[in-house]
Every structure is written in C-alpha cells, then in structure tokens.
Amino acid sequence: MLLRLVNIFGYLSVLLRAGTLVFQSLLLGGVLFIPWVARPSSEIPDNSLEKVRSSSLRLFRIAAIGLAIVQALYLYVNSAVLMASAEMGLRDIVGANFFISGSIVFTAAILAALLATIRSKFAMTWLGLLVAIILAASVMTNHAASRMDGRAPLIVLSFLHELATGFWIGGLPFLLLGLFVAKTTSTQWRLTRRFSQIALVSVAVIVFSGVAMSLSYIGSVRSLFGTAYGVMVSAKAIMLAAMLLLGGINFLLLRKYSGDAVGPRLRRLVEAEVGIGITIILTAASLTSQPPAVDLVNDTVDFAHIASRLKPHWPRLASPELAQLSSPFPGRKIDIPAVAPLPAAYTIDGAPLSRSEVADIGWSEYNHHWMGVLVLAMGLLALLARTGHAKWAEYWPLVLIGIAIFIFARGDPECWPLGPQGFWISWTKTEVFQHRMAALLCIAFAIFELRVRRRPSSGGPLALVFPLLCAAGGALLLTHSHSLTNVQEEFLAEMSHVPLGILAVLSGWARWLEIRLPPEDRAIPAWIWPVCFALIGVGLLNYREI
Ligand code: HEM
After folding, report:
1. Which of 169, 263, 335, 396 stands 20 to 30 A from 9 (CA)?
2. Cα–Cα nearest to 56, from 200, 202, 175
3. Ligand 1 nearest-atom number relative to CA 138
4. Ligand 1 atom 32: residue of nearest CA
5. What confidence tens digit (pLDDT) does each residue in 6-22 have?
6. Whole-model pTM?
7. Ligand 1: distance of its center to the CA of 204 in Å?
8. 192 CB contacts (<8 Å, ≥6 apart)?
9. What is the phi/psi pair of residue 415, to 5°?
10. Using a 6 Å cutoff on CB, does residue 156 contact ligand 1?
C-alpha cells in the first residue's frame, strides 16, 4: 500500500493541491459574496436576498469541510511518503513547512465550518480573518516561499493572484446559486451587477500578478515555449481569454434581453464559466508541481527541436508487428517470428533507443494516428450535419463505436484479442479495466447521442454527461504529469497534450452551452465544438513520440 502511495505520489500531490486551491477559492469567493454581493438592500424589499445569503452560507460550510478533508489527506499522504522514502521520524515531519501550513489550514477550515453556522456580523468578520489565514498558509507552500531571490515580492504577487482567483472564480458558484435561488429579476440583476464589479477588478489583478510572476519564473521567450512550465502558463492565458469571451457574451446578453429572459441565459453562461475557471485552477496546481522555467537553464528545449517535433508528417498508418513490442506476451515464452527491424531512433539527447522501444513508440503513434482519423471524421461529420444540408451526417455518433472497437482491440496488445491473456482474466488488470470501461462508455455515448439527435427532447440531464466527460477528459490532460525522468522529453510530451486538453475543455463547454441555452442562442456554440473536435483529430494525426 505504502509503495503504491510512493509510486503515485507525484500525481496525488497535484490532485491534493488542486483540491486545496478549489476549496480555498470557494471560501474566498464566499467570504466576499455573502457580505458584499448579497448584502441586504432597501431596493429589494422581499426576502430573496436573505434566501441567497442562507444558501451561500450552506455552500461556504460545504467548502470549509471539503478543505479540511483535503488537508487531512494531504498531511497523511505527505507524512507517510516522507517517512517511507526519506526515513524521517515523526518529530522531523512535525517541524516541516508542509506540516505546519497543512495543520494551520486544517484547523482554520474546521473553525470556519463551525463559525459559518452563526448568523452575525461578528461571525462574518472572524470568517474573513480565518480565510485570510488559510490563504497565507497556502501561499507559503508554493514556489514563491522557496525562492532565494526576490522572495518577498513573489509572495505578495502569489497572494494577490490567489486572492483575486478566489474572489472571481471562487465567487462564481455563489453567483450561480444566487441566480437559482433568487427568483425575481430585480434580485438577479443586483447580484450580477455587484458581482461584475468584483470580476472586473479581479481579472485586472490576476493578469497583472500573473504576468509579473511569469517574468520572474519564466524570464525569456525561449523558456516560455521550451519548458513544460511555460506551456502551462500559456494554457492558462488561453483559457482566461475563453472566460473573458464568455464574460463579454454575458454582457451583450444583458443588453439584448430584458426581464425574465435574462436569468436562465445568464445561469447557463455562468455554468460554463465555473467549469473553465475550475479547469484553470487545476492547471495552476499542475504548474506548481513543475520546476520554474528559469531554473531549467540546460533543460530548455530549443526551437529547432520543437519545430522538428511539430513539423507535419504523414501519419503512421502501418503498425509494427506484435512480436517486436517490448513485452507482448509477459510470462510466456513464444517463438518470435523473423520480422524486419525498424529504423533506428534516438532520444532528444541523442541516446539510441532499443528496437523494442522503437516498436512500442510505433505502436502508440499508430494508435494515436488512427484515433486522429476517427476523431477528425467525427468533427467533420458533425460540422456537415450543422450546415443542415446533409441529414445523413447526423449519424456522426456512430464513429464513437469505431473508436470503442479500436480501443478494445489495440489498447492492450498483451490481452485478447491480440495477445495470449484471456478475455475474462484481463479485466482484473487496472489499466485494461480502464481501457475497456472507456470503450464501453463510447458505445453508451454513441447510442445516447444518436437518440438526442433524433429526438432532442429525449436528452434530459443525461445529455449533459457527454460534454461533461469531454471537459473532464481535457482537464485530466492538463493536470496529469508524465513520469518521464528526462525533463526535455517531459516537455515534448506536455507540448502535445496541452493543446488537445484545451480543445477538449472548450468543446465540452461549448456542447454544454448548445444543450443548455435556449434554441435561438445556440448557433455559436453549436459551431465551436465540432471545430474543436476536428482540430483534436488533426492534432492526434500529427502526434509523435520521437
Ligand atoms: C482565470 C485565470 C487564472 C487563474 C484562475 C489562475 C490561478 C492561479 C492559482 C490558483 C495559482 C496558484 C497555484 C499554486 O499556488 O499552487 C496560480 C499561479 C500562477 N499563475 Fe495563474 N491563474 C490565472 C491566470 C494566469 C495568467 C494569465 C498568468 C500569466 C500570464 C498566470 C501565471 C501564473 C504563475 C506564473 C503562477 C505561479 C505558479 C508557481 O508558484 O510556480 N496565471 N494561478
């Protein structure tokens, strides 16, 4: 168990940091939303603002409990792994920076959950203080606190960046809840107007502090494009642009519609903003786990290597032989047939790869390229269907069944139908199980999406599962780290995954909006997601590992 924990520690710490940042942002958002945005007003005579405040306090309590749970896990995992791998005793661990900060956040979160049950001005002031303590303790665990040069300004910038993130992104779920609870248009208007002021200031602070930190942590254009850290920061900037676009559409809607027509439209757009905002926070957590670009003087990949990896190549549509792979049939002696050797290949450092490594890479590239053909076909068919001139193209979800068969057949070469491991026995392996579940999900989506296409009213909430999974898949691509020991290879892997992740996130939320917005407002998102799908297909077609 402990060994497993050590093995997955890298990814687990990104997940726990992401959980901390999301719940911390919610607490920051709530602590400003409740007293400022939902402040009682003589302009709103009914008790709708009171209802908004009560539901917001409930959400605040849930976030505080969530933060306490994540911190408890964080303390346990970090301590257990350090005790096992660095042979540290409990006494050393208790004095470590992470333990002190985690314990402070845990205690403050528990106190905040308790205090949020009390309705008074006094309690609100104390809640503000507790949330400030949580933020300060959290900032002490990111890169700023461990810098040798310019530590103080970087700590201030990180503090401002996370503060503004909380006020804006963390406040959005409170706005969403408020718009849902407040049934009257005047209350919805008031909440939106007051929240927009916070959002505007927060965006300015996020951009200012983000750019200032980037100058310090990245430092040069070469590092921006040649390190995983730089690519992650660029990904955040692109998603911020998407959020600002949604904010702009919100603003236009407010001008175009009036009365009861505004509320539902606003809610749908805010839903997508919450989704993209949380994805940016997850990407930020992954960023913290990477060494800052300026520290990788000798490990920055140069433009020539990047260009050569990105240069369009004809897709690999012929697969290496099964017997050439590194372990096609583990645990079983087989007669390897004579197969023509593959051409020699080298790592980025010029080290030669073994024949089986070359074959493994060929197998993986072949899989990605055929997947690219299928996803591109799906995007193009969906676009064709969107034009309204090709009814038959509405059957694009059938391509998902092709994807399912492909995953099933090629995902695990050592298992049935290609390898010797039987159909039933191979279900017990975690990776095989995940691949098969993904294949089954594709089939389920195909059937479900076909039903939604034929009878749009048959969708209901289940129609939202497909866009949600697209967006979640994209977020996973943006947060998962590659356990490659070579920093430059890790960057090249990141460089191919990050654009696909961003496109998947955008396609998921565009499809979400297409389903959720009233029919007359669906035109733009209905074009965006098929284009994103087609681009993902193109990206996969040019996917390369060497
Ligand atoms: C909505 C937009 C954004 C959100 C929600 C956001 C959120 C965050 C959060 C929560 C962190 C702290 C990570 C941690 O402590 O683990 C962070 C760090 C950072 N962000 Fe952003 N950010 C946004 C936009 C930007 C932009 C536009 C830039 C640059 C132009 C940027 C650059 C950075 C940098 C350099 C760090 C420092 C990470 C470190 O400690 O190494 N961010 N961001």
Report:
1. 169
2. 175
3. 15
4. 210
5. 666 777 888 999 999 99
6. 0.90
7. 13
8. 175, 179, 254, 266
9. -105, 165
10. no
